[in-house]
Design brief:
The chain has 336 residues and is an alpha/beta fold. It contains ten helices and twelve strands. Residues 233-238 have low confidence and may be disordered. InterPro entries: Glyco_trans_2-like (IPR001173), Nucleotide-diphossugar_trans (IPR029044).
Length: 336
């Protein structure tokens, strides 16, 4: 039986105090084999996160079917109020776990990160700087990688094709870039020129690279306005990541990465260098946020920038001409 009316029905929802949500899907089903060091690395990941974020950050952990030790650890963090939201699910895959973390929240920025990332000091400050300086920034990564401009960046290049500030820039932190490819098991027989230059953009007082990787990136919330209820098929990646990658393009948003490196990928094996967790940092200045929500671009605009133009610029002679024009050193153009 119900008597009377629920008083909360008449109360409007207040604007969230938080301006930055971080979603961490966690899948550690056991502590054997591939997952032997999984819990230890997760603890390093989250400790580095706690030490490098400002007080208006909302951390969501989605436990995606992990073992009891992981569940106990996460429950303890929630009880200590180190994380704001903890969701326990069966293994529904990374992308569906991200969707669960997104639902029910309305926070301006959303970072989606794997559970094996070590965050470095100033990553949040530098991410916010890119978003607040570049109105079209929709995705901002914090780990520069090879040839990022070749995936989901047709609109950035199209919009800045005649902009002299779109050009190949020297890689600021070559050792960090080497570290990333070591961490994913690559031999060092890749093109060494990739360590020297990458396509970048000077925008006001902000310098950044074009493109972004997947394992950690921050998105404007309105990228996810229309969420699919469930992504079937492969649980790890597949259609889910393609869906997320295409969403910013629908609104004409650019995909970018900070000029310097602000995170390390740890992988699944613990190493001694991981002991150097960043110390607690002072509060981040987030007073200069300048977010402008964008409507979907027209179908023609989307097709021209992200399909037709992308195919054109991928043609071998066009690509070489473009790289030469955008100041990649001539001796590197042929093999880049």
């Amino acid at each position: 039986m119900r008597i009377g009316n629920n008083p909360n029905k008449e109360i409007s929802q207040e604007q969230s105090f938080f301006i930055h949500q971080i979603i961490v899907p966690v899948y550690i089903p056991n502590e054997e084999g591939y997952f032997l060091d999984g819990l230890k690395i997760l603890k390093i990941c989250l400790d580095s996160l706690f030490n490098t974020i400002h007080d208006r950050t909302f951390i969501t952990i989605v436990n995606n079917g992990s073992c009891s030790n992981v569940v106990e650890y996460l429950n303890d963090l929630f009880e200590q109020k180190k994380i704001k939201e903890l969701i326990h699910t069966d293994n529904i895959g990374k992308i569906n776990a991200v969707f669960k973390g997104l639902s029910g929240n309305n926070i301006e920025l959303v970072t989606v990160t794997d559970a094996d990332v070590m965050f470095l000091s100033d990553w949040q400050t530098e991410t916010i700087k890119v978003f607040s300086t570049i109105p079209k920034a929709g995705v901002v990564g914090i780990v520069p990688q090879f040839n990022m401009f070749k995936r989901y960046c047709g609109n950035v290049i199209f919009d800045n094709f005649f902009n002299k500030d779109l050009k190949f820039l020297p890689v600021k932190n070559q050792q960090a870039m080497i570290h990333f490819y070591d961490s994913i098991g690559w031999d060092r027989n890749y093109n060494q020129d990739y360590l020297k230059f990458a396509l970048g953009l000077n925008y006001g007082d902000v310098k950044c690279f074009v493109g972004s990787g997947h394992f950690v990136a921050t998105y404007k919330k309105d990228v996810f306005e229309e969420l699919l209820s469930f992504i079937g098929g492969k649980k790890a990646a597949g259609i889910g990541e393609d869906y997320i990658d295409n969403k910013p393009l629908k609104k004409g948003y650019w995909r970018l990465t900070t000029y310097d490196n602000y995170a390390f990928h740890m992988g699944n094996i613990y190493e001694d260098w991981m002991q150097k967790i960043p110390n607690k940092i002072p509060a981040v200045n987030y007073s200069n946020l300048n977010f402008i929500k964008r409507k979907n671009v027209s179908g023609i605009s989307y097709f021209v920038r992200n399909k037709l133009f992308t195919k054109l610029i991928a043609v071998n002679w066009v690509s070489r001409s473009f790289m030469k024009w955008k100041k990649l050193p001539k001796q590197m153009v042929k093999k880049y």
